[in-house]
């Protein structure tokens, strides 16, 4: 039968914000479901349950507020989630209410960091006095809050004041600012705040230390350490968040859709074929809200930090699925081009790693398949765990989870990890490959005593490659997407420094003073070169995540310039 795509619920997709550089070059057209012409897949499979945990959408009861007090939209979002939670998991209702104040502070702290440091056009200037930061808006208003350490990960902002009015919810503050595209962003902040409280509410007490790489990933509860939309999952019901969010620790049953005339690259395993048709693993949310097609029952899998990538049970490979929902701030589908080149890029980067001797492994792309639509495709990668030796007590931990181990509290350990990461990152950059080495893509192999031994890198969809630098080493790049290829020094350094230093290392350190101490100890032992010199003397680039969300018609990355911990800043790292 011919299969037509189906439009998801409001908020699941669409809008005008830019999709991720990695996989989405443009948002789905409203109502299209599947793009790129008529769908090329056919399915006669019977409809299977979407997951081991079957979420159900239930109507929210009336808000439990005093009707004489006008609620803020943010409060309404919090109450709507509470209403759903009362129906689907009432045991979490009280923990959710308890978690809300901390979630509000966490999201507001991330937003305040952005307001303090990003080049937002409606902020005229910033000034500090004692421990307070004042932002002078172009319309004459003033916004007051604490001085903002750009590398702090702990929540430290309980409220900020716009004029004389205090705001303790990020969404309410964004609406009050009244800036272009702020209303849509405010809605995402509302939803993200409530979702973060839900994530925090559903955590076990005194849980044992994880023993698998995927279990470590599920310990990362708060999501992106600096993005205000750290837990925004618009389009997901409460039941779906509980069923599919990695921090909720459920097993997800993928669906399998047979596709005729599919694009297949690499070695697509025999168990994922139906005669001459490849079977594409489909996330149950995608099948229910976007594809609307029958699917046979597929493998059980553990959701990882990105939610749409899952570890197959029994220590199997990882499968990256298309998920045409806006998670954090980007639509997470899989472009046909990325499927076409994924195996080639994987082999190429590993060859550069081998040539340079960098202390890093790249998770190999085993195979990839696409139904010629960004909404239906999958990439199969080897598990990072294959690069550790369990017999020697080694384990693989995503960098985003390192603060949970307690290891970064040791200045010596943190300096050693920074040295390892910079050795690998700068070595590959000098050879012509700039990694997007943030805390989700980068993992570390720890010894039995917790010492950082080597790194593992996954997901090559957003790297940058310099033909000129490669040529100096006698290397040539394969045919790549045009956006991945550049010889511009600033672009290459931003890619690595912004993700690795201002992202992964900063979040592992948790504050500017800790980051400075680690970097100062690490750079003394690194080979001198122009990239290291730039790292030590220039402002540190970081993606301007809020500016990008408020500039939806502009594609590509936008950047903030943060105070460099390696450059003397006086007595503070705040503006």
From TrEMBL:
Belongs to the IucA/IucC family. Residues 58-73 have a biased composition (Pro residues). Residues 412-556 form the Aerobactin siderophore biosynthesis IucA/IucC-like C-terminal domain. One of its GO terms (molecular function) is acid-amino acid ligase activity. It comes from the Bacteria. Residues 1-73 are annotated as: Disordered. Residues 215-402 form the Aerobactin siderophore biosynthesis IucA/IucC N-terminal domain. Pathway: Siderophore biosynthesis. This is IucA/IucC family siderophore biosynthesis protein.
